[in-house]
Amino acid sequence: MDNKKKFAIVSSDNTGVTFNNKLNENDTLNYFTFPYIYMGGGVSVGDINNDDLVDIYFTGNMVDNKLYQVLKVMIDGIPVQQWLILIMMDY
To answer: Which residue, 51, 48, 50, 29, is CA-closest to 40?
Structure first.
């Protein structure tokens, strides 16, 4: 079995992805009055704009949905994928 790391944690400072599906519970809106409150958000990845780079779409319960698109950068003629927010849209 291969014990090498498959994933690494990358901070939002490096990725530009700052989405937070913040839930504001109160006396009338909480787990006991609305048990599905924690099941409403999601994330999807795919090539939204057909540029062969993976884009990320987050959906929120109480916050606006956000689309993060990746910008292809060239450094010394070599294509580099860098997590920069090209478009951040509210839906």
So the answer is: 29
Closest CA to 41 of 60, 24, 54: 60
Q: Is the pTM of this model over 0.85?
A: no
Q: What is the pLDDT of residues 3-34, one digit of tens each?
A: 776 667 777 887 778 899 888 999 998 889 98
Q: What are phi and psi of 69, to 5 degrees?
A: -110, 145
Those residues whose C-beta lies under 8 Å from the C-beta of residue 62, and which sit 6 or more positions away, are 21, 22, 23, 24
The residue among 6, 5, 18, 2 whose CA lies nearest residue 84 is 18
Is the CB of residue 56 less than 8 Å from the CB of residue 44? yes
Q: What is the residue-wise DSSP string for 52-63?
A: SS-EEEEE-SSS
